[in-house]
Amino acid sequence: MGPSTRRTFLKQTATATPAGLSLSSVAAQRKTPAATIGALPWYRRTLRWGQTNITEIALTARTTTSTSRPSCARSSSATSPRGSPTTVGAGSTAAPSAIVATAGGSSATALARTSHASETAHTYLRLNPELRARVYGPHIGAEPPITSQRHEALRGFEETDLLPFGGVLDPLRVDATARVLMTFVPAFPIYPPETAWMREPKTDIPGLIVHSPARSGRIAFLPADCDRRFARDNLPDHGNLLANLVRWAANDTIPLSVEGAGLIDCHLYHQPGRLILHLVNLTSAGTWRQPVDELIPIGPLHIRVKLPADVNAKRARLLVAGKAVNAGTVAGWSCFEVKSILDHEVCVIS
Fold first, then answer.
1. pTM of the model
2. Which of these, 44, 79, 88, 335, is most buried using a 10 Å CB contact count?
3. CA atoms lying within 13 Å on the CB side of residue 198
4. What is the DSSP letter of 224?
5. Of 167, 178, 297, 287, which Cα lies nearest the Cα of 229?
6. What's the confidence (pLDDT) of residue 216?
7. Rounded to 5 degrees, what angle do the CA atoms 139, 145, 148 make?
8. C-alpha distances in Å from residue 214, one per residue of 177, 219, 242, 252
9. The pLDDT of residue 8 is above 50
């Protein structure tokens, strides 16, 4: 066998198992006479080596994917070692309605699901359909064809096919009437960089399922707990995804729209003959962390409020600023502007 090259070394390490790695073999190589130094593999002939060629990694990945399957990647047709596979269908009465039909009920399954909540892994979610064939940039010629438009729950992610996740998912059986918008990409190494490539870039394990049964509203089932990840990691993509899902499920019935820079907590109340809107400015240098050591003013904010039948919006008063603002009415919505908010503002629309 000839001298090892970097490419053959990567192929060997990618398919090797931990049991096959022997320290004794490394020790034996250290005793090799100097006369045979020219026959040593490349990683023994150099003191330091840098970044591995990405194309070389990609070639290695394609040759080893079929033989090296991570333990966390499971086919949806197999029974999960963490518990019985969950069935997702349209004819069910279990929660969420018309989505989950059955779920594992054993204590082992309950413990496994509990452990999922504390796990963090280098995982991703793949968006469907994939749009990278039309995105500007390098292409390899194997991009999947674009067969349909993306669901509105994925609005804002038109230039990517992947979202970071960080959690763990189990297989589900999905009913044909439901639509899978995201699938799970199992964990893979992140260090050293020459090993950081997806061992299994695509699975059929669903991360987001939506369904619109006739006369039953809209349903979004998110097996991928992006809400927990958003609370933990504060990743804007997770927050935008959750907001998109709420807007889609509400079917354009949310009676409030606030547009402007900053992070704002909004509460809308209805009293006889008037609406009260409480805006709290959460923007700070340490957002999501307490205590707040500085108040950062934000604005202007463009506000639209859907008017109920008993409210005639002739004016809007800002109680904290102590002034009235002009409020116009367009197609049943009251529209006005708040110039600036330091800590909070109370808007009375009557």
1. 0.66
2. 88
3. 14
4. S
5. 167
6. 78
7. 130
8. 11, 11, 24, 18
9. yes
Q: In degrees, to the nearest 5, what angle opens at C-alpha 137 toward C-alphas 136 and 142?
A: 100
3-class DSSP state of 324:
strand
Q: Are residues 341 and 296 in contact, defined by beta-carbon separation less than 8 angstroms?
A: no
- Give backbone dihedrals phi and psi of 42, rounded to 5 degrees, phi first: -60, -35
At 125, which helix (H) or strand (E)?
Answer: strand 124-127
Joined tokens for residue 341: 């908010």
Cα separation values, 182 from 32, 157, 223, 297, 331, Å: 52, 12, 10, 38, 36
Output 25 or 305, whichever has higher pLDDT: 305
CA distances to 41, 108, 199, 302 from 206, rounded to whole Å, are 43, 22, 18, 38
Q: How far is CA 203 from CA 88, 184, 318, in A?
A: 17, 6, 53
Which residues 6+ apart lie within 8 Å of 112 measured at CB? 82, 83
Domains assigned to the chain: 6-64 (no CATH), 86-250 (no CATH), 256-349 (2.60.40.1180)
Interhelix angle for 236-250 vs 226-233, to 10°?
140
Instruction: List, for residues 75-104, the tens digit of each pLDDT value.
Output: 333 334 344 444 444 433 333 433 444 344
Residue closest to 43 by CA, chosen among 52, 55, 35, 34: 52
Beta carbons within 10 angstroms of residue 321's beta carbon: 16
Residue 7 has a pLDDT of 66
**Token representation of residue 221:** 């089932």
pLDDT of residue 69: 38
Measured in degrees and rounded to the nearest 5, phi and psi for residue 207 equal -110, -20
Query: Under a CB-based contact definition with an 8 Å cutoff, are residues 338 and 345 in contact?
Result: yes
Mean pLDDT of 268-274: 95
